[in-house]
């Protein structure tokens, strides 16, 4: 249990201090573009601020945050889909190649990962990201996405199949 | 306890997916990005009046931009409320360009506990709260870092409720939000109540979004659009702009 959880008076500032980097990463993997990440993070913490008074500590703060992130990211992606924006190019240009080869490789790996995740629908993506990347337990995943545990398992398996198929496709395309 | 399947990231096969997952799990924002975000959140990260800022933890020295912002706000408050508004404007009230005909509802309260004598600066317009209950939130700033127990506010707004009570604000707006789907008129009414009780509330942007949504829900599209435009002018960098645009978009684009 974290210090934040132990506190009776949970403050938005405390949640921010402890979880902001984590929220940032989860949102990125949930499909929030780099150009929008600040806006969407801000939205998450506005929701946190608004709902903090009603947070009942039935789950961990992180699980609670997962749920908020999943919903806000899903909302964001839906808007993005309806509004393909011209800032895609800007975003690409903004991603200046890091000086270190290692960092570049990491960056490329994340881009590739995100492109694979983009193939999943929101439900499967949320389960896959929380379980496989953020290593949250399946029960917490189910709580965060607000579905029965068995449904979460089904989504995970389906997501794995789709990701593996996409990787196989990628390899097939690369190897002559 | 559970029979969670082995994670792909822990797989011993060392495949390319594992490498990608590891890369995905290692990304973190840098310090600059976090500070920018903190600055944008501004007063939302302020402690509640009289509350403990760190939830029982000593805050990391200089780690929270909000704290830093609070201090600089305090310092500026001693100089003048105008500067205070400007200082916070980065986070909450960017570039006020309120139309001349819109009555400003500025309510700036800053209490600076670290000064030898607690300084209370209150700037209020002459407009009664009731007349502006649903006026667009063009200037809403409320920063209360601490309330001195021995020195009563000199020029305080004793006729109106405390400017900063995030919990009560949140509860009231949550009720408005909940009412939106089934009873937008009720949502609107609750927003009016919020505007009266918290004219300088830190959730004024949220209130505006709910108002716009309620108006749209009631078919008052023209008013909703006007309101949205005023909001856009008052908060050109607000995270809510996209949501508002989305609310007012024609729904003909569905699949």
Report what the structure shows:
- The complex is a heterodimer of chains A (176) and B (255).
- Chain A is mostly helical.
- Chain A is globular.
- Chain A has one domain (3-174): Butyryl-CoA Dehydrogenase, subunit A, domain 3.
- Chain A is built from nine helices and no strands.
- In chain A, helix 2 packs across helix 4 and helix 7 (122-133) runs antiparallel to helix 8 (138-145).
- The model of chain A is unreliable at 1-8 and 85-99 (pLDDT under 50).
- Chain A has helices spanning 3-6, 12-29, 37-51, 61-82, 87-94, 101-117, 122-133, 138-145, 149-174.
- Chain B has helices at 16-25, 31-41, 65-79, 81-89, 166-180, 184-197, 204-217, 221-234, 241-248, and strands at residues 107-112, 119-124, 143-144.
- In chain B, strand 1 (107-112) and strand 2 (119-124) form a beta hairpin.
- With 255 residues, chain B is mainly α.
- In chain B, helix 5 (166-180) runs parallel beside helix 7, helix 6 runs antiparallel to helix 7 and helix 7 packs antiparallel against helix 8 (221-234).
- The longest helix of chain B has 15 residues, at 65-79.
- The relative contact order of chain B is 0.10.
- The model of chain B is unreliable at 50-133 and 137-161 (pLDDT under 50).
- The radius of gyration of chain B is 22 Å and the shape is elongated.
- Chain B has one domain (42-48, 65-253).
- Chain B contains nine helices and three strands.
- The two termini of chain B are 43 Å apart.
- At the A-B interface, helix 1, helix 2, helix 3, helix 4 and helix 6 of A face helix 1, helix 2, helix 5 and helix 9 of B.
């Amino acid at each position: 249990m974290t210090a934040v959880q132990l506190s009776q008076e949970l403050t938005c500032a405390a949640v921010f201090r402890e979880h902001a980097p984590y929220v940032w990463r989860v949102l990125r993997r949930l499909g929030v573009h780099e150009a929008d990440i600040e806006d969407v993070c801000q939205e998450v913490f506005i929701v946190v601020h608004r709902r903090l008074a009603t947070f009942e500590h039935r789950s961990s703060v992180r699980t609670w945050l997962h749920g908020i992130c999943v919903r806000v990211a899903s909302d964001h992606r839906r808007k993005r889909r309806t509004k393909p924006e011209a800032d895609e190019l800007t975003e690409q240009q903004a991603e200046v190649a890091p000086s270190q080869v290692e960092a570049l490789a990491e960056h490329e790996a994340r881009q590739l990962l995100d492109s694979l995740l983009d193939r999943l629908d929101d439900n499967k993506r949320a389960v896959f990201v929380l379980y496989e990347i953020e290593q949250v337990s399946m029960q917490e995943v189910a709580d965060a996405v607000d579905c029965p545990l068995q449904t979460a398992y089904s989504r995970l398996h389906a997501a794995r199949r789709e990701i593996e198929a996409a990787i196989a496709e990628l390899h097939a395309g690369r190897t002559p | 306890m559970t029979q969670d399947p082995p994670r792909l990231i822990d797989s011993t096969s060392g495949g390319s997916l594992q490498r990608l997952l590891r890369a995905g799990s290692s990304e973190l924002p840098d310090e600059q990005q976090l500070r920018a975000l903190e600055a944008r959140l501004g007063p939302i990260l302020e402690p509640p009046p009289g509350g403990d800022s760190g939830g029982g933890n000593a805050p990391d020295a200089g780690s929270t931009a909000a704290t830093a912002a609070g201090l600089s706000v305090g310092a500026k408050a001693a100089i003048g409320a105008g500067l205070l508004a400007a200082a916070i404007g980065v986070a909450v009230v960017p570039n006020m360009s309120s139309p001349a005909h819109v009555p400003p509802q500025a309510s700036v309260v800053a209490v600076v506990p670290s000064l030898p004598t607690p300084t209370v600066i209150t700037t209020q317009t002459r407009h009664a709260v009731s007349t502006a209950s649903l006026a667009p939130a063009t200037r809403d700033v409320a920063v209360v870092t601490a309330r001195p127990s021995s020195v009563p506010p000199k020029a305080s707004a004793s006729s109106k409720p405390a400017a900063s009570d995030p919990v009560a604000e949140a509860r009231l707006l949550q009720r408005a939000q909940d009412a939106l789907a089934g009873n937008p008129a009720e949502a609107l009414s609750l927003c009016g109540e919020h505007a009266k009780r918290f004219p300088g509330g830190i959730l004024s942007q949220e209130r505006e979004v709910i108002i716009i949504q309620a108006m749209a829900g009631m078919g008052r599209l023209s008013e909703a659009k006007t309101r949205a435009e005023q909001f856009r002018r008052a908060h050109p960098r607000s995270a809510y702009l996209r949501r508002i645009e989305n609310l007012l978009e024609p729904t003909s684009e569905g699949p």
